[in-house]
């Protein structure tokens, strides 16, 4: 499967909030505009073995914004209620297929993925690792990520993209300086 969405933030909930790319900038891009995109995100990040056709993407965007508020410390009461409601929903359940393969199933895969995201967000903000959530230092990025480096000094969400761009900019600036 080709990855359509950015991964690697260190937690499912942080990867999920990246679906509003370049948040707060003129280049802000909604990556979950419809059910097809929401299903593609579930297919990429979820445990299901076959493609998912979830219901409305409206709940997905609402949960994403509630998770963002929670992680950034600006949680409103309605968003807290939304997160708690989705966290209480059923999550995907494992089952053993006749072939011996582990398969995951849910009556409503979209809602069960939102339950996983909401539970992950609640777990993150109540864990010691929450102090290691960082905002990318990339000029245009600003994505949140979990810094798992030993010294806790990681600056970019992705060394391959944002870190590389920052280093290129620094190099160019030095090369053109008088």
From TrEMBL:
<dbReference type="Pfam" id="PF07336">
    <property type="entry name" value="ABATE"/>
</dbReference>
<dbReference type="InterPro" id="IPR010852">
    <property type="entry name" value="ABATE"/>
</dbReference>
<dbReference type="InterPro" id="IPR023286">
    <property type="entry name" value="ABATE_dom_sf"/>
</dbReference>
<dbReference type="InterPro" id="IPR021005">
    <property type="entry name" value="Znf_CGNR"/>
</dbReference>
<feature type="domain" description="Zinc finger CGNR">
    <location>
        <begin position="132"/>
        <end position="174"/>
    </location>
</feature>
<dbReference type="Pfam" id="PF11706">
    <property type="entry name" value="zf-CGNR"/>
</dbReference>
<protein>
    <recommendedName>
        <fullName>Zinc finger CGNR domain-containing protein</fullName>
    </recommendedName>
</protein>
